[in-house]
Specification:
alpha+beta, Factor Xa Inhibitor, about 80 residues, 2 helices
Length: about 80
Amino acid sequence: MKLRYSLCIVLLLFVAGLWACDAQNCYDEPSQTGPCKAAFPSWRFIRERWVCEPFVYGGCRATENIFDDEEECRQLCLR
């Protein structure tokens, strides 16, 4: 029985750690288009205004503050 509780606690700590790592992306500097010439529709979190905004990512030199869609940005940064 103690083993089961210990495993549950370890699992909860692991999940909490993953959540904290994902949320940290929101506090990086917002990604910019960058010098590359691709055009990937992306989203970034602007912490000064507390909003997710779209931008066109060029394909290189992004920070961790880059998301595939608005839903992902909102779920991680606006909770």
